[in-house]
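I'll show a record.
***
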Amino acid sequence: KIHFCFAKDLPQPLEPTRAEIEQAAREANAHNFIMELANKYETLVGERGVQLSGGKKQRIALARALVKQPSFLLLDEATSALDNINEKIVQEALDRACKNGKVFDDADDTMIIEQATAEDEKSRVEHSRLLSSTQILDVTQQSPKSFSEKSAVLRLLSMNSPEWVTIVIGCVACILNGAAQPVFAILLALIAFKYSSISEIRSHVALNSLFFVILGVIILILRFFHYTAFAISGSKLTHRIRSKAFACLLRQEVAYFDRPENSSGAICTRLSTDALAVQEMTGPRLGVICEAISFMFFGVLLGCSINWQLTLIAFSPITILFLITYGDANLRIWSSQQSSQLVTRASTLAVEFIHNSRTVKQLSIEKEILRQYAELIYQALILPWKPLIPHAIAFGIFWILEVYGVAFLFWRVLFLLEKNELGLSQILMSNRIASTSSAVKTFLDLFDRTPTIDNASTEGQELADFRGGIKFDQVTFIYPTRPTSIVLSKLTLDIKPSQRVALVGTSGCGKSTIIQMLERFYDVTSGQLLLDGVDIRQLNLHWLRSHFGLVSQEPILFDLTIAENIAYGLENVPMEDIINAATKANIHQLIEGLPQGYETRVGLKGSFLSGGEKQRIAIARVFIRRPKVLLLDEATSAMDSQNEQIVQAALEQAQIEDPSRTSLIIAHRLSTIRSCDLICVLDRGRIVESGNHSELMQRRGIYYKMVKENDLY
């Protein structure tokens, strides 16, 4: 819903009504699929719309433009990600908007709702039961473990074991520094006692002053080793934690990043802020704790050796202090966790703005984004203040008790002096963790999480002679983050080695999901996915992906040179191979025309290139790998007709060069798949028609209607 509301950020902000939102969604042919979602218009689409298919995202973007009722409507390949049916419906709506000079008219729209058959309903019940036994079990297995603060600290200290010598030096310095404080009290008492005898003052001033200077130098040296040792160990631990956390993140399956709490903003916060918070636990703060324990230990020993009664009175408030500190720490842990969630949301919002800055500026919603960000930051800053009220009350009580304790101590001293049981020298001798714990537990949960698909695993079978056979055997799939939505329903598909197979169907019918399962971004919920007769889950993950070449609907480029992007992930690639791959993808001449040629940087996410140019570089990146299975997910959707024909010829040439290569193609433009050996029509996660182009045209079924809609017959 918020995506539609963003479009109405006018000088006098008027949030669009629900009727306007639904009308815009109908115009963009998005209303029906939105109503099928669990939370309908309140469904969170995920970071950069990760929860939606390309066609669904495109339709929501169109609806966002229509709800704004613009005077000028700018369409940059606005229907490139839509199938032919949705493209025609949306195009008619856009034509009406342009013809009438406005987006909305008074004409009633007809909405067709397909009724679920009894078989579909039975299937949904069956899949819901299946979900409860698989997906929910998986979530239970992956739930974070509960760590006590003690065990968490011990785990953390064990990670600092390579610096044990440095830590021991720091601890020894702290222990000696703690012991130096009672020594200071002894010297002070001796001086005071000597000063009470006037005849001995001059003879002892120089000697006692020298003792103070020596003690001060010793404390200075101890302080140096204290802070230096723990600063070194803390910095190395922070580096180690960040490296291990990043390595653990790379291991996680794709579904892990579908969750809102694992957005890019949350992960950046975890690696930066939380890692620094952990350093405070094992850095100089650990030294302060060691020094305090040492000071207390030697102080109690000294006090008990002199007068146990005064020692007991002096240390009685400490018990109360421990209780207050424990309660205060728990309160601050809760506050830190809540504040961290708000900061994470703010970071995610900032990352979303950076990624979609052009859209934000086009919609003129900078003020709204700033308002949301400022509100989240304000709440994050205010929340830690709430525990300060009980914190202040508790410590106020403690200081009151301390004052009364000192008063009682003086009364007891006078009482002992009257009985001559105490001397003057003996009297003078007696005088941020919560946020860190939260950060520690966050990292330990990540370190201990075993991904369902371990990207760092070296286990698994490697097929000696992989031929490229693919078989989906009664495969059912449900996304873990959308447990009520059945994406694939008992899908059966047998792709022979070297076959060229095309998948067609409406947006959201499961086409891209099939490719993601072949790349093993996700595992099947039930059924089997076989490669040359072997279950894909038994294969080595790195070997598997090295034999697949994927060109997705949204090409991803890195802020590197063109040559580095084409050869990304490969080592010592000859320039000749890079040029050859670029030539096949029809991008070589364009690259040669650039001032720096193949050394031209493409910018963040390829921002210096057009959509078609980025796509051709992505295709060249696949060509250079010579994959056994070629996966094309709308590979030519961002190209004009001329480049599409050239690249399509290059793709067919790649098939001719290696006749044993298996190809799986997803396309909305049916002209690109007519020559395929097998064409499968998907609807609601099932194959409803299959055959080659001629066979399907003779049946005059769904495919026949799609071809007629595309004016290809």
Q: What stands out?
A: Confidence is low (pLDDT under 50) at residues 6-13, 101-146, 422-435. Strands lie at 470-478, 486-495, 500-505, 526-531, 534-535, 548-551, 629-633, 662-666, 678-683, 686-691. The domain at 2-113 is CATH 3.40.50.300 (Rossmann fold).
